[in-house]
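Re-running DM2 domain-containing protein to confirm reproducibility after the cluster update. Everything else is unchanged from the original entry.
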Amino acid sequence: MAKTPTKAAAPKAETAKKVAAPKAAAKPNALQQPLKPSPELAAIVGDKPLARGEVVSKVWEHIKKHNLQNPENKREIVADEKLKKVFGKDKCSMFEMNKHLAAHLKA
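Result of re-run:
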């Protein structure tokens, strides 16, 4: 039987830690870019620029707080007065909602 060569333990040398150079500020992607809401949407989410994800979260908070989901079909949102101004109609599916929100956001 041939012996397999074993690696000798290398003496521990103090290694210098690499310090990462500061990176240039990364450009936010489309979902992270702050957008200004229209006055109609600002009534729900506030008038400060927000990322799309934050806008959607705040709209969902409003929907949950005011119990605006159709109890028989949870995918359907029954708009109150504020949401009617954003959606342009009385009911909207949760998938269609983002299309309506995009129309009320500007860079």
